[in-house]
Each structure stands twice: as structure tokens, then as C-alpha cells.
Amino acid sequence: QDRRRIRDGLAKIKEFDGLLGKVQRLDDRESQKPYVFAIAKTPDWAVLFDPR
After folding, report:
1. Which among 22, 39, 40, 20 is positioned nearest to 31, based on CA atoms?
2. Counting CB atoms within 10 angstroms of each CB, which of 5, 18, 27, 47 has the fewest?
């Protein structure tokens, strides 16, 4: 019973603020969200794309 109520409550959330920007929940329960694309080069990381 509680699991269903939690699931139904989460399903009602359509948009919220994430760490990198808005996160949207689509009708098929997928999420659309900004991302950071980085590459690891020993010993450093290089950010190739940042949506901010």
C-alpha cells in the first residue's frame, strides 16, 4: 500500500530543479535532464560539455 502511494506521488512530479538545471519527467516515465560530458585523461579530467 505504501509503495503504491510513494510511486503515485513520484509519478505526479513533472519537473524539479536538479544539480545542473531542470529535470523533466516525460509521460513514458523517462527523465529529460542536462548532463556534463567529460573525458578522463591521466591524471586529469577534461569537461567537454557543460550545460550551464
Report:
1. 22
2. 27
β-pairing verdict for 37-41 and 31-32: unpaired
> Where in the chain are the domains?
2-49
Residue 35 · residue 47 · CB < 8 Å? no
Question: How far, in Å, CA of 2 to CA of 16, rounded?
Answer: 23
CB within 8 Å of 51: residues ≥ 6 apart? 20, 21, 34, 35, 36
- Amino acid identity of residue 42, one-letter, is T
Q: What is the DSSP letter of 19?
A: S
What's the pLDDT tens digit per position in 15-26? 999 988 999 999
